[in-house]
């Protein structure tokens, strides 16, 4: 399991600790102290370290969730800004795809651009954005030398 998955899994189980207020925290400590065996007292320091670790894990998970939402929103806005622009990139089949962006879709793998003609390109695979489409290169065989000028009199 990845560290992200481990934190997310721990996050779902520990969600209540992020809302633990000072009074509840003090109550837990007092309950722990009152339930101790006087002949074998547990270390309050250990309890505090455990609770601190739990709160730190929850805080990290919350921060990761907020950062993921921020990145997702930023990608969505960036993709929307490409509508009407000419883009180019490699699609999932590793083929060059280019064209004017007509629509943007949100997927589990991030924003997907729909290009003219129905071609699809993931935002993450886009490698070029142009204001206007590139000019087609002239075919050297189809160009002819200008004809002689005639004087129409």
Layout of SSEs?
Layout lengths: L2 H11 L8 H13 L9 H37 L5 E5 L5 E12 L2 E6 L4 E3 L3 E5 L23
Antiparallel strand pairs: 1-2, 1-5, 2-3, 3-4
Textual characterization of the structure:
This protein is of the alpha+beta class. The chain is 40% helix and 20% strand. The protein has three helices and five strands; from the N terminus they run H-H-H-E-E-E-E-E. The protein has a five-stranded antiparallel beta sheet. A hairpin with a 4-residue loop joins strand 3 (110-115) and strand 4. Helix 1 packs across helix 3 (44-80). The radius of gyration is 31 Å and the shape is rod-shaped. The termini are far apart.
Q: What's this entry about, in short?
A:
The chain has helices spanning 3-13, 22-34, 44-80, and strands spanning 86-90, 96-107, 110-115, 120-122, 126-130. The chain has 153 residues and is an alpha+beta fold. It folds into two domains: 3-70; 81-130, SH3 type barrels (Roll).
Quaternary status of these chains?
single chain
| Percent in strands | 15-25%
Please trace the helix and strand order, writing H or E for each element: HHHEEEEE
- Mind telling me the C-alpha Rg? 31 Å
Low-confidence stretches: 1-14
Mean pLDDT: 76
> What is the end-to-end distance?
88 Å
User: How can the largest sheet be summarized?
Assistant: 5 strands, antiparallel
In spatial order, strands of the major sheet run: 4-3-2-1-5
Give me some keywords for this one:
5 strands; 3 helices; alpha+beta; single chain; SH3 type barrels; rod-shaped; 153 residues
């Amino acid at each position: 399991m990845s560290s992200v998955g481990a934190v997310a899994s721990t996050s779902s189980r520990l969600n209540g600790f992020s809302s633990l207020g000072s009074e509840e925290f003090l109550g837990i400590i007092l309950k722990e102290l009152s339930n101790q065996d006087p002949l074998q007292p547990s270390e309050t320091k250990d309890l505090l370290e455990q609770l601190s670790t739990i709160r730190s894990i929850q805080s990290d998970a919350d921060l990761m969730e907020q950062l993921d939402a921020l990145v997702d929103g930023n990608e969505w806005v960036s993709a929307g800004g490409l509508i009407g622009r000419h883009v180019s990139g490699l699609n999932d089949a590793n083929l060059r795809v280019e064209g004017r962006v007509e629509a943007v879709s949100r997927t589990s793998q991030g924003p997907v651009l729909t290009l003219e003609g129905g071609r699809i390109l993931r935002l993450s695979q886009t490698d070029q954005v142009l204001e206007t489409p590139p000019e087609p290169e002239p075919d050297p065989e189809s160009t002819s030398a200008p004809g002689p000028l005639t004087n129409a009199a």
